[in-house]
Structures are given as structure tokens and as C-alpha cells.
């Protein structure tokens, strides 16, 4: 089969077909999405035969041998820590969800890592109805889902973005307030979903209410966070930072998010879409912050 590997130009090459285990379905991939983390923090010395990729959607061509998961012919969205950037993917049935006809497979492919991360991180904050929640990196993949999901949960959402251009459309997603850059964060917040790190994480921590919490999700700034805890103590008596990591299986959370998409209650925010032979172009645009939302590649 053809697949993308981390060769110099990120172009499709030929690799062996995946061999599914008894609990895996074999999926013909229709589209996959790119995530900042899998591009920016890829291995410096990947195995030439390794197929990267976390998020993909397609059609089951071979059901799992153990009887779990959907039948052949079912449209699905899938997650795994490798194997998405290919014509075929073997995926654990606990890591997929059925996609109804009302939802495009390209749109569904934008969901797994970004959508589930936002959902799980918000869940970790606990009840947020009536509470002020700050979303940093609100123009990115995780941030756009987080703004929508937090607003749906009843939070007063503050969306922070790096520029006015990248902040456009956040109010339509549910943000009550917009902040441009870490220096413009004002007011107190019960919770923070931080995907940026660095100065943004430090400034967000200083804005916490007593007993507030920062979910440290990502490090898009690729810079260290330096926090003056004595300064922080003058603003929040008991604020804390929690290192957040998404947990598997993804299946139930993916099914929930697909249901919201189908009901028109969630927007996947696909900001770039094209054929997979343009993967290098999409990756460069993602790293350079020229993509607002998710980048989707059609196979």
C-alpha cells in the first residue's frame, strides 16, 4: 500500500499492508488530519518503514476477528499513535466510532486527538457552568474544540489567541471575551485549558481564582514556562497546575463528539484541506501558524 513516512518531502511511498490483530479492524482510509504535536515533535531518526499519524477516518474493509467493533462497510473515525497516514489502517475497535452518513469522513478525521483532548481536559476541570474558563491557543485545533465544548457546558469562555486575525470567529464558537497574547490576559479565571505553554502558561497561572486550576495540555510556544510563585500567591491562594495527558480508549468520547457533529452542535473547524500529496505543504502551514483550526488530507 501507499503511505506517508517522514521522508524529506513527506510524499507517499510504498510500505507493507498492516496485519490486524484479532481485536483490530482493517480500515480503508479516506482522509486523515494533522496535529501540531505529531509534526513539531516527531522523532529525529524515524524508522524508514514506520507510518506515522494519529487521526484517520474511512470505511471498514475487514471486521475484527474477535467479533468486536463494526461490520465491513461501516464508516468510522479512528485513533492510534501511529498508522493513520496510509491507504489502510489496522485499528483497535476500542479506538474507533461509527460515523453517520450526515457527517463527512474528512470532517470526522479532524476529531480524534484535538477533540478528545479538549473534551477530557474540560472534564478534568469539573463543573464549569457559570464559571470563567480561559482557553489559550484558542485558534488551534484543541483550542477551537475547547471553546465550543466549554461554552456548551455553561462556562463564561475567554478565548486567547496570538493575533486579532487568529481570534476571528471565536465569539461565534461561544467565547464571551477575546484576549490577544499573554500580556492582555485580565481578570480571574476558575480554570484554564492551556495549549501554548511558555509565557502564556505563566500568565494564565497568575490569573487563577483561589482553588483554580490550569490544565497544561500542550507546548505550542516551544519555550519554557517561568513562574514566580511568590507573585502568583498574591493573586491565588491555592491555584495549581495539572499536567494533562489524554487517555485511551477513545471510542466512547469519539462517539460523543461525532454525535455532536451530526446534530450540528459542534464545528470541526477545518482550516486547510487538500490531497495527501500536498502533505508537506500542509505541515509547513501548520507549523507556521497559517492554518486556523485543523488540516485535513484526502487519500
TrEMBL record:
InterPro entries, alphabetized: ADH-like_C, ADH-like_N, ER, GroES-like_sf, NAD(P)-bd_dom_sf
Record bears the keyword Heme: no
GO molecular function: NADPH binding; oxidoreductase activity, acting on NAD(P)H
CDD domains given in the database record: MDR4
Keywords: NADP, Oxidoreductase
SUPFAM superfamilies in the record: GroES-like (SSF50129), NAD(P)-binding Rossmann-fold domains (SSF51735)
Gene3D superfamilies, A to Z: Medium-chain alcohol dehydrogenases, catalytic domain, NAD(P)-binding Rossmann-like Domain
Transcription regulation recorded as keyword: no
Domain Enoyl reductase (ER): residue ranges: 5-297
A Pfam cross-reference name: ADH_N
PANTHER family named in the record: QUINONE OXIDOREDUCTASE PIG3, QUINONE OXIDOREDUCTASE PIG3-RELATED
Name this polypeptide is given: Zinc-binding dehydrogenase
Organism whose genome encodes this protein: Nonomuraea phyllanthi
